[in-house]
Design brief:
The chain is mostly helical. It has 12 helices and 2 strands. Helix 2 packs across helix 4 (90-112) and helix 5 packs across helix 7 (180-196). The longest helix is centred in the N-terminal third of the chain and has 31 residues, at 34-64.
């Protein structure tokens, strides 16, 4: 089955490249990048399929069984812009052009020193393609857990990652509401891990795609959970929503210090093992405590922190928070 899907995607990639992408590349006078454009076409194709799937499945579910009424349609639209930029591969292509020469240089240096990346498949002779996919799925998710948890442990990092948590109208597009610098750090981190354990490029594309689809489900405004057993096996919308809970998911016991719960990206087992799981069966309100109006001892009300309404405002304010929080011991 996986081979059939791979063959179909390869044929579709070739057709899209030859009929649309390649002529456009030459028209723009960028013929020297034609090979890179072919690789970018794969991300574009996968992203288009993902967007179609989200529209056909998750969008109707949000209309039928929502957790909350959307009170700020503009905020949801802004999240959609983030998702399109990610899913059609623009951000991936930007990272590729920026980092690929560096990665090639590092790889050549390591080969010169007789270093070869660990290939997990070689440790399990006879493993099927599906089996190797699942092994890489679990290993990459383990490292993703620690990346995500680290973004809640360092003040400067939380300054960036806070943008993701500032959405009070969580929806299926909210997974991609991230600061570009935070995304850059994560993509480099996960890409290096994948290279070090021997993930093939085509397999990595599928791993990323499956992860993105599941994370879109987690952030969706849908009243869904996976039951007593299922909640322990795969991160559900209800489980992940607790991670976005005001004063709980991103704080240490509601004390205003960095910490939180439910950091698992796909598999709750990491939260269970490392004691960060919170299985409270509630669909909670989302956002960040400092977004709420503050009342002092004299009864004077001050507005909450502004995280930005539009894409560029959110990016700029994220950089300002990163610098501001880096100077503090407590957020």
């Amino acid at each position: 089955m996986m081979q059939l899907i791979s063959d179909w995607l390869g044929a579709a990639q070739g057709w899209l490249f030859e009929t649309v992408v390649q002529p456009l590349v030459f028209q723009l006078g960028c013929g020297e990048f034609v090979e890179e454009a072919f690789e970018g076409t794969e991300w574009l194709l996968i992203g288009m399929l993902e967007l179609t799937l989200l529209f056909l499945v998750l969008r109707p579910l949000e209309a039928m069984i929502p957790v909350h009424k959307i009170t700020d349609p503009r905020a949801r639209w802004n999240d959609f812009i983030y998702t399109v930029l990610h899913r059609i591969g623009l951000f991936s292509v930007l990272i590729f052009f920026t980092l690929d020469p560096l990665m090639d240089s590092v790889a050549a240096m390591l080969r010169f020193e007789s270093f070869h990346p660990l290939n997990l498949e070689n440790l399990m002779p006879g493993i099927s393609p599906l089996g190797s996919f699942l092994v890489y799925f679990v290993v990459l998710d383990f490292f993703d857990y620690w990346y995500h948890r680290a973004s809640h442990q360092f003040n400067w990092w939380w300054g960036l990652h806070g943008l993701h948590h500032s959405q009070q109208n969580m929806n299926l597009w909210s997974d991609n509401r991230n600061h570009l610098l935070d995304d850059l750090l994560r993509d480099v981190y996960m890409g290096v891990i994948a290279l070090c354990i021997g993930v093939e490029p085509a397999q990595y594309v599928m791993l990323v795609s499956v992860s993105r689809i599941l994370q879109s489900l987690q952030h969706a405004n849908v009243r869904i959970h996976f039951g007593r057993v299922g909640e322990w096996l795969l991160v559900s919308p209800r489980y992940h929503r607790m991670h976005h809970a005001i004063g709980v998911g991103h704080e240490s016991h509601g004390k205003g210090t960095l910490g939180g719960c439910n950091f698992a990206v796909l598999l709750p087992v990491w939260d269970i093992i490392f004691r960060t799981a919170n299985f409270t069966p509630q669909f909670v309100a989302t956002g960040i405590r400092d977004q709420l109006p503050q009342t002092d001892e004299r009864g004077v009300v001050t507005p909450g922190r502004e995280y930005g309404r539009g894409f560029w405002a959110q990016q700029w304010l994220g950089l300002k928070r990163m610098v501001e929080y880096a100077r503090k011991d407590v957020v």
